[in-house]
Task: structure prediction
Amino acid sequence: MGQIVGAAIVSHHPGLVQPKEVRVQRGNGRDSDLIEGFDRVRARIDAVKPDTFVLFDTHWITTSMHLVAGAPHYKGLYTSSELPFAMSGFAYDYRGAPELAALVEDVAMERRVPARNAREATLPLHYPTINVVHYLGRGEKVLSVGTCQTAKFHHFLQMGEVVAEAIRRSDARVVLLASGAMSHKFYDLDHIPPNPRIWHPDNVSDQKNRALDQEVLALWKEGRHDTVLDRFPELEAAKYEGHGAHYAQMMGALGGKACRARGTQLSEYENAAGTGNVHVWFDL
Result:
């Protein structure tokens, strides 16, 4: 029987895969702490010894159904259509999790949840998967889960429940990775960041959003996912990345409002183009 052995919220923004000298220059002489934060997350992963990542990808936008990426292997070069000067010709090469993907579709069909397994190896990939696997992957299988743009909050929880049941029916040891930002309101094109360190939280676009992020971090620290989920409309109003689907689907897999997994912040809370970014590990 399979098991979920760990879970984390992780940042993925393209600035993290730019050359170190660029990151340090943008950081006013100091690199983004999210880089060392990946090492701290990896240490937690090593401690629980998974063989599979289930990664909730906030950029893989689907329509009319949930999708999981079920090909056996993914290899190629990625150029971001959004930010090609930040990510161009970026190599990726990792194993998929086709058996688990097939189980997700089986469970979804049994429960009449609109979710399917996309088996095509030519499926376009997105940097929330590629960048996180780049920093955290050590040969684990990877199952990417999309963000359905026609889903509502309860649908995301439901999809997480489907994923959890599929894991139970498998023989996998899984770490869940919710790949996305917290508040995700970009600043305008002509905005001048107030702090010379681009990663500084003062540069997050909206003070109210930044305050909400800090409240959520405090609630995660106490394991109060029930309160965070009750406040989900506030998260959506603050434009949490991917409608907050990465967090909601992960919580659905962990028991929803009954989950009391306490969060340990493993990086500084940082800005990226006005959005709030952080790594948080949840002990199960």
